[in-house]
Amino acid sequence: MTNLQPESDPSQVSRETNINKYFPGQEGAIRAYAEFLTTAGIERGLIGPREGERIWERHIFNCLPVTQLLPQGASLFDIGSGAGLPGIVIALARPDLKVTLIEPLERRVEFLNEAVAAIAAGGVEIEVIRGRAQDVKKSADFVTARAVAPMEKLKKMSWHMVKTGGSLLAMKGESAANEMVGIKGAELHEIKLEGIELGRVISVRKGSLISA
After folding, report:
1. Domain 2-205 fold
2. Distance between CA atoms of residues 99 and 163, nearest Å
3. Which of 38-42, 148-152, 199-203, 204-208 has the lowest mean pLDDT?
4. Per-residue pLDDT averaged across 11-37, rounded?
5. Domain limits of the chain?
C-alpha cells in the first residue's frame, strides 16, 4: 500500500485556496462546472438535491487525489462517467492528459456534452463517448471509475480497455481494502493532498505478470 500524506488540515484551507492551487489557469472553468453541477446536475437527477452545498468538498476536491497517479501526457478513459466525476475534474486539474468520458445512458451523455461546452473557455479538450465499457473497442493508458461497480466486476468490464503497462484506477471509500481480496496485482493508495480529505484509490497494473 502506498501512503502519500503531507501534513494538512482541510478545515484550515479555504475553498478559493484549493481552487487556485489545484486548478491553475482553469479556475473559471472549474467554477463553471461546479455551477453546472449544482443547477442542471440537480435538476436532472445526476446530483442529489442535498449535494449542492457540498459539491466542492465531497465531489470536486474528492476527485483530485487520483491525479497523483497519472504521469504527464497519459491518455485516460473515465467509465460510467455520469455527471463527469472524476473525468472532468481530472481534465481541468491536469490539462496535459487526454481525457475521454464514457457513459452508456443517453441523458447523461447529453449532460456531459453540455458540461464540456460550459467549460470550453478553459481550452481543455474532452471527448465524450456513449457506450458501455464492455463494448468500447479503444484503449487508454489509464481507466478511472468512481462509484461504478465493485472492484471485481469493474475489472472484468474494463480490463480490455487498459493498455499494457497502464492501470485501472478505482476511487473507493473506507472499505477499499475489502474489495481488493482476490484481485491479483491490486494495490491500495491512500493519498492525502494539502487541504483535501484523504483519498483512497485501488490500482491494478496491466503487465506481463497480471492476467485478465
Report:
1. Rossmann fold (3.40.50)
2. 15
3. 204-208
4. 92
5. 2-205
On whether the CB atoms of residues 158 and 182 are closer than 8 A, the answer is no
Nearest to 143 by CA among 168, 177, 160: 168
- Per-residue pLDDT for 209 more than 50? no
Each residue of 101-132: pLDDT tens digit?
999 999 999 999 999 999 987 789 899 999 99
pLDDT of amino acid 210: 40
The C-alpha atoms of residue 72 and residue 75 are separated, in whole angstroms, by: 9
C-alpha cell at position 33: 462546472
Q: What is the pTM of this model?
A: 0.90
Residue with cell string 461504478: 148
